[in-house]
Amino acid sequence: MNMREIAKRAGVSTATVSRVLNGNPKVNPELRDIVNKVIQEVNYVPNAIARSMNHGTTSILGLILPDITNPFFPGIARGVEDAAISKGYKVILCNTDNHADTEKTYLRMLREQRVDGLILVSASNMSEETMRQMIEDIPVVLCDRIPESKHFSSVVTDHRKGIKMAVDHLVGLGHREIAMISGPKTLISGIERANYFRDIMAEAGLPCPEQRVVPCDYRYESGFIAANQLLKDKAITAILCANDMMALGAMDAVFESGLQVPDDISVVGYDNIPFSNWSRPRLTTVSQPTYLLGVNALEILADALASSETDKQQVQRMLNPTLIVRKSSAMVKR
Amino acid sequence: MNMREIAKRAGVSTATVSRVLNGNPKVNPELRDIVNKVIQEVNYVPNAIARSMNHGTTSILGLILPDITNPFFPGIARGVEDAAISKGYKVILCNTDNHADTEKTYLRMLREQRVDGLILVSASNMSEETMRQMIEDIPVVLCDRIPESKHFSSVVTDHRKGIKMAVDHLVGLGHREIAMISGPKTLISGIERANYFRDIMAEAGLPCPEQRVVPCDYRYESGFIAANQLLKDKAITAILCANDMMALGAMDAVFESGLQVPDDISVVGYDNIPFSNWSRPRLTTVSQPTYLLGVNALEILADALASSETDKQQVQRMLNPTLIVRKSSAMVKR
DNA sequence: TTGAAAGCGCTAACAC
DNA sequence: GTGTTAGCGCTTTCAA
C-alpha cells in the first residue's frame, strides 16, 4: 500500500496525500477528511525509506558500545534511546567487544545505512585518524571517552573528581595505605584513572609505590586475583577499584583470605552499577551518571544535526560523579 | 557521492557500477578494476536506503523489550544482535517499560521504517488482536512470551520444567514448607510461574496455601517486603522466587530478621542474572538461557524471512532451563 | 558484456 | 488549493 493507491482511492493526487500526511495547512478540509478516512480504512503508514530518499536524512542514529551485557552500558543505552525517541530518532545498537575489526564492520554498515549520526562508547584501539576516515563526515559524539584531538564532541564523567572523592573519603576515614585495582593498560580509561590515583595520592602526601596499582581487565575474576595479590602487603588498609565488578571480586578475595570488609580492609568501587547496592556489604562506590551520559551524548548529537552544517563547533561536556557511601568502607582500625 | 558520480569517473554506466558492487560475474575484469579503484579513491559506500527502495526490503529488524536496564534483557538483546549481524541484519532497539502506548508508538515507527521483521520481548497487556492489527503482516517472533493464539512464532524457556527443578531441589533437601514470591498478576509470566508452582507442590503432595504464594513486581524491594511478610509464618523453610532480583531482596529480608540463608531459610532464585553468582551467599537459581533465547528468536525470524511468503508456518520453540546450585540453599535443619 | 531507461514511494517546485 | 512532474540513488529488465 503506497501513496499513489491512497491518492487513487481518495480521488486526489499524491501531492495532496503528502500534504495531508505532513500537516500542510493549505489543503481543503473536506479533502483532508476524505484522505484521512482512506488512510484509516487501509491502515496505511507512510514509507520512511522513500521519505529518506528525498530528504537525504534518515532519522536513524548508530550507538556503538562494547557490550550491552556489561552492567555499565545499559544505562547509557537507555539514556540514548529515550532521548533519541523524544527527538524523533531511532537507534541501531552495535556491540563491538572493543574489537577494532567489529567496530569497522559496524561503521561501514552504519554508513551504508546513512545514519544521521553516531554515538561511540566503544574504546577499541582504533586511532581517531582511522575513525575519521571510516565515518567520513557523519557527526559523532564520543561517550565515556575523551577525544585525543579536538575533532570530536564528547561527554564523559569527571574521573579525576571521582577518584579524588574516593581517595578523600578513604583518607577521611584514616586510611593512608591505599592500593588501587585499575583498568587495563590498553584502554585509555584504564590508564587515566590509575594516573589520577597516583597524582592524588602524591598530592595528599601518601605513599603510592608502583606495585600497589595493579592493572586489571574490569572483570570480577581479575579483581579477585589482584586483591589476593595485594593482600600480601599487610600494610594496606583500603583498596580502590576502577569499577564495581572488580570491587566485588576484591571483596570476595578479602573474605576468602579470612579478613573482613570493611573491618580489616575497606573496598571502594567505581560506577555504581545496580548490583553494587545489593552486595554484602553494600558497596561504597563512585557513581557515574550513566543515564545522563547517554542523554547528554544524544543531546549534543541532536544539536549538531539541527544546526547548520557550517558551524561545526565541537563540544566537550563533563558530568560530575557522586560518592555513594555504603557499607564496604569504614574507619581504619590500625 | 553516489553511483552516478562513480560511473562518470570510471567512464562506465551506473549499471556497470551496480554490477561490480554486487559481485555480478558478467563484467569485464578490466572495467571491474577501474570501478573498484575509483570506489577506493573516493571512499564510496553504497546507499542502503536507495537499495531498499528497489528491493522493498531493509535488512532492519526491530527488537522491542521492556527495559534494557533490567539485567534479564541484555543477554537476549546481545543474542539477537549477534545472530542478526551474522545474517546481515541490523537491529533497532526499543524500550517499552511494558507500556502499551509506548509499544504502539514503536510499532508504528517500525512499520514506517519498513523493518523486515520484529522480535517482541515485551509483555504489555496489548491484546494479540490489537498487535496483529498494529504490525499488519510484518513477521514477528515472540520471545519469552507464549502466544495465546497460534498466529505467532515464539521462543520461551520451559518454565514448568524450571519451577519443577527448583521445587525438586528443595524437596530433595528435605524442605516441605515452601513459599513462593511470584511475578505480578498482570503479567502472563507472573501468573504462569505461580500456577506451575501450585501444580508441582500439589503433585508432590506438599502444602501450598494461598497466602504462601505472594505476587510481586519483580523488583528487589518487593522481594524484600514479601519475604518479611512470609517470615511471619514460622513453618516456612524455603522461599522460591520468580526472579533473582526478588531473591536478593528476600535474602536481605531474612538477614535483617536475624535469620541466616541458607541455615534457617533456603532461597532459590530464577533467571541466573550475572549478579546471582556474586551475591553473598551466592544464589542457587534456575538459569534461563537468555542469550540463546535471543539467538533462537532471530533464527526463527530469519528463516521466516528467507522462506517464501506463502508458507507461513508458525514455530514454537521451548528452551531448557538449568538448575544452578550454589550456596543459598541447604538441607533443612528442622 | 554493456548501457539506456523505467521505476521503487515519496517530496517539493512549479504551474494552474 | 490542487495537480503535474522531476528527481532522491539504486536495481533490473531490455536492447544492442
TrEMBL record, chains A, B:
SUPFAM superfamilies to which the protein is assigned, alphabetical: lambda repressor-like DNA-binding domains (SSF47413), Periplasmic binding protein-like I (SSF53822)
Record-level Gene Ontology MF annotations: DNA binding
Transcription regulation as UniProt keyword: yes
Keyword DNA-binding tagged: yes
Gene3D superfamilies xrefs: 3.40.50.2300, lambda repressor-like DNA-binding domains
Residue ranges constituting the HTH lacI-type domain according to the UniProt record: 1-55
Record keywords: DNA-binding, Repressor, Transcription, Transcription regulation
Pfam families tied to this protein: LacI, Peripla_BP_1
Designated name of the protein: LacI family DNA-binding transcriptional regulator
Species this chain originates from: Alicyclobacillus fodiniaquatilis
